[in-house]
Amino acid sequence: xxxxxxxxxxxxxxxxxxxxxxxxxxxxxxxxxxxxxxxxxxxxxxxxxxxxxxxxxxxxxxxxxxxxxxxxxxxxxxxxxxxxxxxxxxxxxxxxxxxxxxxxxxxxxxxxxxxxxxxxxxxxxxxxxxxxxxxxxxxxxxxxxxxxxxxxxxxxxxxxxxxxxxxxxxxxxxxxxxxxxxxxxxxxxxxxxxxxxxxxxxxxxxxxxxxxxxxxxxxxxxxxx
Length: 225
Ligand SMILES: [Zn+2]
Description:
It contains 9 helices and 7 strands. It has a single domain (about 5-15, about 35-220), classed as 3-Layer(aba) Sandwich (Beta-carbonic Anhydrase, Chain A), CATH 3.40.1050.10.
């Protein structure tokens, strides 16, 4: 095999490495070719996740990797901000089949957005780096949401995570419902707590979307069209 596989490909089964993405399929984001709209950014993530769960990661040539490496050394222009859970199975670059430089990732257990530093990082991704999409990224079997759903009292600073999630899932009947409700709640909370991001969304420069990853199938369900 002549090509070098990017970060995403390294996590997949060896037979898939020799199978590049189908011709005509949306390519992974490349520096200098940013999506023009939030919806285009969302479509890049959809296409990347499709490649991932179909075990057909995009395969880059050595030349392409060298070019990306050189370009990224002089600056970054990630097209999406991902606010994901810290769970070790929720690696956004792998799940969305992206090279480094494409995603500005903020991760906290339960994908919560409470602290000023957390929300400040999200704002930096949009206001300074120009990302078009902010994806609140939850996942199945989330331990943080499970703790809140079970009304656990872990104490210490872990309690702050449970307390952040609890109001969003108060009426959820199942854990899966709670996971979606938490993503929805965090989306609303970001709009409430960040005038900057709310204004960017109102102006059409940003979309604050939600998604849930299924850790068994590898499929991401997007909650916003
Ligand atoms: Zn989690």
